[in-house]
Write a structure and sequence with these properties.
The chain is 34% helix and 22% strand. The chain has 263 residues and is α/β, with parallel strands linked by helices. The longest helix has 23 residues. The mean pLDDT is 94.
C-alpha cells in the first residue's frame, strides 16, 4: 500500500534509498570514485522513479538531476539529495553519510526525512524526534571533519565552545537533533538539497533554523544556492546569533560547479 501522507512517503523513500545504498556500498569497485558515482546514480534513479510513480504531479529538485524551471511555478516540490556525504560513503566503516528527502509546499517545508543508513536510522517530520536535554559543558559545534571553516573556529573561540568533527551536512544537522551537538553553523555555502530535509526535521523537533543573520531560510528559489545556515537548540539561538554578528564575515563563498556539499 502506498504511504498515506507526505511525511510517510519521505520516510519510506529516504529509508529505502538508504538500504539500496548499503547494497551498492558492499559491491566491489575499482576505486572510491566509482563507488561514489554508482551510489549517486542508483539512489537518484530509485528516488526519481518512486516519486514519479507515487506523486506524478509534483516537481522535483535533486542534486543528481538537471534543474527543471517548471518547479518555480509548482505548488509542491520535492527537494532531495540522494547521497549526502559521498566521501564518507566511499570510505569503509564510516557511518556519517545520509539521504535527504523533503517536500516544499507554497513557500514552506512541510515534510521531510533524513536517513543515516549505516546506523539503521531515519528521522522524520511525521514522528519528530525528542531532543535530549543538553548536558553541562561548553557549546558543542558540529563541524566538517576534513575542513573546519574559519568562521566556526572563530565562533568556538568566542563562545569557549568545542568543535565536534563529523561527515555529511545531514549527519551534522541530525547530531543537533540527537543531542550529540548543540549547533550546526555553516557559512561556506550549500545547495537547497543539502539542508532542506535536515531543516524540516530540525524544525519539527523544535530546533531553531535560520540564516546566520537570523533571517528565514528560503527554499525553491530560482538559484538553489544557500550561502549560510544555523541549526541549534532554541535556548542557544540568541547567544549564537549575537556572537555571529560580532564576527568578521568572509567574502561570499564560491560554489562548486554542481552539487558539491560544503560541510
Amino acid at each position: 500500500m502506498p504511504p498515506r501522507s507526505d511525511s510517510d512517503l519521505a520516510r519510506e523513500l529516504a529509508a529505502s534509498a538508504g538500504a539500496l545504498l548499503l547494497q551498492v556500498r558492499g559491491r566491489p569497485f575499482a576505486d572510491a570514485a566509482a563507488r561514489q558515482a554508482a551510489g549517486d546514480a542508483e539512489a537518484q534513479r530509485f528516488l526519481a522513479g518512486r516519486l514519479g510513480e507515487l506523486r506524478p504531479g509534483d516537481a522535483v529538485l535533486s542534486e543528481e538531476a538537471a534543474d527543471d524551471a517548471v518547479r518555480l511555478g509548482a505548488d509542491r516540490v520535492w527537494i532531495v539529495d540522494p547521497l549526502d556525504g559521498t566521501r564518507e560513503f566511499a570510505e569503509p566503516g564510516r557511518s556519517d553519510w545520509a539521504v535527504h528527502v523533503a517536500l516544499w509546499e507554497r513557500g514552506e517545508l512541510t515534510a521531510g526525512a533524513v536517513a543515516i543508513p549505516a546506523e539503521g536510522l531515519t528521522l522524520t517530520t511525521g514522528e519528530p524526534p525528542a531532543v535530549p536535554e543538553r548536558a553541562d559543558g561548553p557549546v558543542r559545534l558540529a563541524v566538517s571533519r576534513s575542513r573546519p571553516p574559519a568562521l566556526v573556529q572563530d565562533l568556538a573561540a568566542a563562545l569557549g565552545g568545542e568543535l565536534v568533527p563529523m561527515g555529511s551536512a545531514g549527519v551534522k544537522a541530525m547530531a543537533v537533533v540527537r543531542g550529540q551537538a548543540d549547533a550546526y553553523v555553516h557559512g561556506g555555502g550549500q545547495y537547497e538539497w543539502d539542508s532542506a530535509a535536515p531543516v524540516a526535521v530540525a524544525r519539527a523537533a523544535g530546533l531553531h533554523t535560520s540564516r546566520l543573520d537570523g533571517t528565514p531560510l528560503r527554499y525553491n528559489q530560482p538559484d538553489p544556492w544557500l550561502p549560510d545556515l544555523l541549526i541549534c537548540r532554541p535556548e542557544l539561538a540568541d547567544r549564537l546569533l549575537a556572537a555571529l554578528a560580532e564576527l568578521p564575515r568572509a567574502a561570499a563563498p564560491s560554489r562548486p560547479s554542481h552539487g558539491g556539499t560544503h560541510g
